[in-house]
Amino acid sequence: MVDTWFDIKPHISAIESGELIITANNRLRNHMLRAYGQRQTDAAGVWASPRIYSLSQWIEMNWDVLQRRAYAPAAQRIINNLQRQTLWEKIIGESSLAAALLQPEPLAQAADSALRNLELWQLNEEQVSAAEPLLNAQSNTYCWLTWLGEFRARLAQLGFITQESANQILIDAFKNLQLDQEAIIHLTGFDDIPPQHQDLINSACHELRNIKLDNQQTQLIRTETQNSEAEIRAAALWSKIQLEQNPAAMIGIIVPNLGQCRDQVERIFVEVFEPLAALPYRPRYTLPFNFSAGTPLGATPIITATLDLLELQKSSWDLEAICNLLLSPFFGDADSELVLRTHLIQTLRKLGKFTISLSDLRYHCQKLKSKLGIAESDNNLITRLVQLENYRRQSFGNHSAQHWCDFFQQHLQLLGWPGTRQLDSQEYQQLTLWNQVLENFLQLDGTGIQFNYPGAIQQLRSIAGKTPFQAQTPNSPIQILGALEGAGLQFSHCWVMGLHHRQWPPVPAPNPLLPTNLQRTQKMPHASAERELQFARALTEHYRQCAPVVVFSSAHSDDDSELSPSALIRHLPLTAIDSLMSNDQSISAQNYQALAAASHLEIVSTAQAPQLLIAQEPVRGGASLFKEQAACPFNAFARLRLGATSIDEPVAGLSAIERGNLLHDALAIIWKQLKDQNTLLSLDETALTTLITTTTQTVVDALKQKRGTSIGVFYAQLEQERLAQLIADWLAQEKTRPAFSVVAIEEEVQIEFAGLPLRLRIDRIDQLANGDLLLIDYKTGQPKLQSWQGERMDEPQLPLYAVTATSPVAAIAFAQINAKAMKWIGTGELNTNHDGIYPSKQPWGEQLQEWQMYLQQLAADFIQGDVRVDMKNPTTAQYAEDLLPLNRLQEQDALDAFIRRMQGAV
């Protein structure tokens, strides 16, 4: 592979004459230097370094010359981008004009961009004011001018100047001959130069020359694809074909909106070029393509974890965020702590909280340490969390960046950062770049601003997010570039994508803080459609010249609507996408098809699992075993034998289960005191109200203590009042029943049924005055009598208890207790009339025998390993969505069709 495809010949005369060449960006400069180096190497000569610099390098070099010469106007510090942004945020945040703003950072970026444009176009505040037709306290321009006055005052106070002010000093120095002027300056790669930069270059030379590409041998191709996904894949497959045909090729892929779709582009190119890269435990290696813009350092796993670790001191954490952090390998000994961390994650999820505090983390970690028998150590997770709490007092107050830098380093050291696992090459590079982030953070001390703990973390996040990470890799044959990064570069092949009418030319986006008419008149960036068209036309013309073969592409549609090719390429004849490549499938897709065609598949029934060996395998579930087996045999197997349980998502307030448990607990306490109906009837209204209020307050307080701050005082009071009213209404219903006494409350029994050892719990057992026993199950939902009918009962708990009870049971009943209805729903053979409890359709003894037969069959199926995916009804499937990855219910139709085809083929 050649190092670069750049044609250095048009520049040789200027280089050998020692003339200055200024490039639009550093990437173009590097290509030119490599191209010249290759040429000289081929000539086997020794050569002086050519005078080729990017514009920013050249400006910095001349500023250094002025400072070394002690030029008085240059005896000032240039404020850097981070310091500018922070100063703007501080000014805007303190301004009464922006009191209602929720996000000062984007506004600070717009304010700084407006100042840059103002100075680069050599304008002043008076011209801005004159251009604003409605300059008042409500206008954006008025606010910005107010903030700009404060910004300039603080710059003067701190001894800073802007880069644009330094540029003006350079212009004056060249004009006053304080800097040596060049005879000739050559420009290359520039499509647009701001007036100040143009003035600076003009003042630095006697003659200015622009070097333009003039490639008359270019083959231009226009093609279209169905959507952007297909467009990116086509470019990747085309690139692969070109490299296979010519390994020395240098291919450019230009994506105007690369910043928005970088992840998608990378995913597809990896799929096409390195299909095995996604395999687990496969080490990272150099891919044959390179992106011009790196990923944000703050988005890389190790730095994301680092920033999250620094925030452990904050009062509360989002549940998902803290669970993800606990899985990170970048602190402590993640491998040896894996069991503890996974148990801790499960425990935190079971709390049902949206947020977790550091104290929650320490408390449950300590409990799990005892439960799991983890030995004391100076370097385990529990010890580190305790030390972190002791270190917390240093996180209070406002301090300098230097203070926070020291604090963060100590904080990370306490947590065992960056972990005991050996870092790979990219992680090591990212860790090295983290030190640069800290150095940049320290520069904020130059602004005199102090930060509190959250503010310091936010600054670090912002810096890391704006720091690009580009892995150190050899030169790649494929360069994936944004619209501007491709300026001036040359390739053997180039594909420019995304050139549809909505994106090319780009949509105008004038700065909201400067008068729009001023921006349009001065032709500032993104100011108008005309300016964007002019800029896009210049770039397109360059792309036409950048390679012998150039492909322009656009998509037919996006997710929402139709797209058409940009007017800048529409005149080119359309070439079918199929003609550009011999194969439109990636290696992965070809491999899948080859495997499918070559495989000899055997149909294996999965409806039968190994038999349950009760002596070797615990029997879980109690009465729910029969409910799960009746609903779907596979569900019972997955949940009760495989342990495939899901954790409920957190809910705002109390969940339906928690409300049901409150009702159960409160009624249990009340009936343990009352014991029978006579006692209930003997209580006057005041005494009964006191009993209900005290009991409901007790159970709500217990739950509130368990849930902590996630349940507020007023919310808990509302729940207590709701529960008290519900129980009062129900006890009024209990007063109208035939006389009874409560003989069992939340009774737990251990039995053996159909060969299964079971542990059952019944809500309540009443004995009527005539001796009849009534089994009761509290329900806060909408129970139905049909729940006990059929071979696959919806609610088998009461029938199971009825057929296994040691004393004859006369009836079973649901006690429906909710705001919609207070009633009994039951069946049996009572010797007295009871509201809501009716005789069964067959003699009670036969009903019990039928239930026993059905339940025994369910037990036998469970023991024998019946695991058919046989959902009783759609509701069952709805409540088993967590098992979809296991039962493959959504794929059932496709699997059945596949099996039929196989059997037909046989």
How is the topology of this model organized?
Elements: H1 9-16, E1 20-23, H2 26-42, E2 52-54, H3 55-68, E3 77-78, H4 81-94, H5 104-120, H6 125-131, H7 140-158, E4 160-161, H8 163-175, E5 182-188, H9 195-203, E6 205-211, E7 219-225, H10 228-245, E8 251-254, H11 258-273, E9 289-291, E10 295-296, H12 301-310, E11 317-318, H13 319-326, H14 338-350, E12 355-356, H15 358-372, H16 381-390, H17 401-414, H18 425-442, H19 453-466, E13 468-469, E14 478-481, E15 493-496, H20 516-522, H21 529-545, E16 549-555, H22 587-598, H23 624-631, H24 633-641, H25 656-674, H26 677-682, H27 685-707, H28 713-735, E17 740-753, E18 756-768, E19 773-779, H29 797-804, E20 811-817, E21 822-828, E22 837-839, H30 844-864, H31 874-878, H32 884-887, H33 892-905
Parallel strand pairs: 1-2, 1-5, 3-4, 5-6, 7-16, 8-14, 8-15, 9-14, 15-16, 19-20, 21-22
Antiparallel strand pairs: 10-13, 11-12, 17-18, 18-19, 20-21
Helix pairs in contact: 3-8, 4-5, 4-7, 8-9, 10-11, 13-14, 14-15, 15-16, 18-19, 23-24, 23-30, 25-27, 27-28, 29-30
- Secondary structure: helix percent: 40-55%
Structural class: alpha/beta
Strand content: 5-15%
Q: List low-pLDDT spans.
A: none
Cα distance, first to last residue?
51 Å
- Biggest sheet layout: 6 strands, parallel
Dominant shape: elongated
Q: How many helical stretches?
A: 33
> What would the average pLDDT be, to the nearest integer?
88
Total DSSP E strands: 22
What is the radius of gyration?
Answer: 38 Å
Strand order of the largest sheet: 7-16-15-8-14-9
